[in-house]
Fold:
Amino acid sequence: MNLKGRDFLRVDDFSTEELLHVLDLATTLKGDRTPRLAGHTLGLVFAQPSTRTRISFSVAMAQLGGMPITLQASEMQLSRGESLGDTARVLSRYVDAIAIRTLSHAELEEWADVATIPVINALTQDEHPCQALADVLTIRDRIGHLEGVKIGWVGDGTNVLVSLARLASRLGMEVVAACPEGYDPPADTPLTLVRDPAEAARGANVLVTDIWVSLGQEATKEQRLRDLDAYRLDSTLLGLAADGAIAMHCLPAHPGEEISADVLYSENSAIWDEAENRLHVQKALLALVLGAV
Ligand code: CP
Structure:
């Protein structure tokens, strides 16, 4: 399957077969350090903070024999008025692919329109597709299959939920999301929306949540904490889930807010495997879009 030269801005940019191919290759490449990308460079353009995404992309390139270059938007001429288009044109002459974190999805699309190299979404307000790949790989690793799995989401209807629901629906999983009024995901997200967290949790094989105050939402923090208080992923909700259910969270976590510490650090928690899987899926994605497999 040839994904060379492709952008990955949204889950739906890839066919179901292509998404499964990335997951399968991620499993194959776990622990693999063959220098398939020797001489290749990945530009990491981050307008927002990141621990997992930036570091896992950097390590992925290193494990594949290539080199990452972190480009803080604030340290480039972008911050002094050089246009995004001209920056994309110039970077296309230097690096082989770019991973971009910016809140505006329209801005990411502008990068992709101008760049002549693969552009990868490292998180926008609309989607976090690399996170969704890692989430689904984690589910497959821990549960053993994907078809028929029930995912119960509790809390804010974030970009992480949107990408996870889009990927899960393509792979035969059911997503039931419990979000308070005012915190719904976009209406076209393929999931069942409920208001009662117990309804999302009951019989679920996977329980997932996300932080309550995302990047750019600090000004409304107190209101958000009040509105979301009944939507904490805790041991009571976990007790309603199916036997052997796993808890997931893309991190960073705020124990006591969206997830209780006893769930975050429990035997049911797949959260640390989920973080590790960011590395494996991004290795596969980079190898594929750079034509190295
Ligand atoms: N899950 C995630 O995207 O983490 P970072 O914000 O640390 O990259």
Observations:
- The chain has a mean pLDDT of 97.
- The beta strands are 41-46, 67-72, 97-101, 119-121, 150-154, 174-178, 192-194, 206-209, 246-249.
- The two ends are 9 Å apart (CA to CA).
- The longest strand covers residues 41-46.
